[in-house]
């Protein structure tokens, strides 16, 4: 671990590997949602237990995001892995936990609805819109900065600028809006998918106030002006 603190190439390699694991976790989660969480044989008498286990799995993921984002936790991570790998450590742990979440997610019996034909096409259009919105918003954010690659490759890292263009003109958190469209938009809503959509979305909604406090702390009046300019957090006209 001491070598990683001193050796920039080793730190950069760890950060790039973290980015790769993050992509596996994210894309694997979408694959699990759209294909693996279909209606499969599941015991009715185990439904409640499975639902509780699923909620606990996502709670572990949410607690990691909440706790390791705190300044005190970041300082402890720096002590453990050094300043170059602080962000990468966060990405590594988050990605591995998220892989565990969708890998271990338990099936629930039955489904809420199953639409076919033209209505199914409308559903898939909503999902496609969600992916498009997510990609458009993500392109405006430097993924190498988020994954900690920039931090690992230099002694000091510049803070990312406040992004207010493109889909950020629509809502303040367009990636979260894209997530809602993806997880709730599908034509075949099994109860397994329903729980995943509800639990994950509840976490996003709960996290937004804390995230915006951090953004105000980071950008000050610039972010407050952005909040006044773009009123809606996730859903235009609603919230």
First-last Cα distance: 45 Å
Q: Which structural class is indicated by helix and strand composition?
A: mainly alpha
- Percent of residues in helices comes to 55-70%
Q: Biggest sheet: strands, sense, closure?
A: 2 strands, antiparallel
The run of helices and strands is: HHHHHEHHHHEHH
Number of helices: 11
Q: Tell me, what's the shape?
A: globular
Give the overall average pLDDT.
87
According to DSSP, the number of beta strands is 2
Radius of gyration: 19 Å
Strand content: under 5%
Q: In what order do the strands lie side by side in the largest sheet? A: 1-2
Model regions low in confidence, pLDDT < 50 over at least 5 residues: 1-5
Summarize the structure in words.
The structure is a single chain. The protein is mostly helical and 239 residues long. The chain contains eleven helices and two strands. It has helices spanning 2-6, 8-36, 47-67, 71-81, 86-104, 117-139, 143-146, 149-153, 174-185, 191-219, 221-229; strands at residues 111-114, 188-190. A two-stranded antiparallel ribbon has the order 1-2. The longest helix is centred in the N-terminal third of the chain and has 29 residues, at 8-36.
List descriptors:
mainly alpha; 239 residues; globular; 11 helices; two-stranded antiparallel sheet; 2 strands
Architecture blueprint of SSEs:
Layout: H1 2-6, H2 8-36, H3 47-67, H4 71-81, H5 86-104, E1 111-114, H6 117-139, H7 143-146, H8 149-153, H9 174-185, E2 188-190, H10 191-219, H11 221-229
Antiparallel strand pairs: 1-2
Helix pairs in contact: 2-5, 3-5, 3-10, 6-9, 9-10, 10-11
């Amino acid at each position: 671990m001491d070598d990683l603190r001193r050796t920039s190439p080793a730190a950069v390699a760890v950060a790039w590997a973290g980015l790769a694991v993050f992509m596996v976790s994210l894309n694997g989660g979408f694959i699990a949602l759209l294909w693996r969480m279909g209606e499969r044989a599941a015991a009715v008498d185990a439904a409640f237990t499975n639902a509780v286990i699923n909620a606990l799995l996502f709670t572990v993921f949410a607690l990691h995001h909440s706790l390791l984002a705190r300044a005190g936790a970041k300082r402890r991570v720096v002590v453990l892995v050094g300043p170059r790998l602080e962000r990468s450590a966060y990405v590594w742990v988050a990605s591995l936990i998220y892989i565990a979440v969708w890998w271990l997610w338990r099936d629930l019996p039955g489904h809420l609805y199953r639409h076919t034909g033209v209505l199914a096409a409308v559903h898939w259009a909503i999902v496609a819109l969600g992916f498009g919105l997510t990609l458009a918003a993500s392109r405006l954010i430097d993924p190498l900065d988020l994954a900690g690659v920039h931090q690992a490759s230099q002694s000091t890292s510049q803070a990312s600028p406040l992004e207010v263009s493109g889909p950020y003109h629509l809502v303040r958190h367009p990636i979260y809006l894209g997530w809602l469209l993806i997880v709730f938009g599908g034509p075949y809503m099994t109860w397994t998918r329903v729980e995943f959509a509800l639990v994950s979305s509840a976490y996003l909604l709960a996290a937004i106030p804390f995230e915006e406090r951090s953004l105000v702390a980071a950008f000050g009046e610039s972010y407050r002006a952005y909040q006044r300019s773009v009123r809606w957090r996730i859903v235009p006209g609603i919230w």
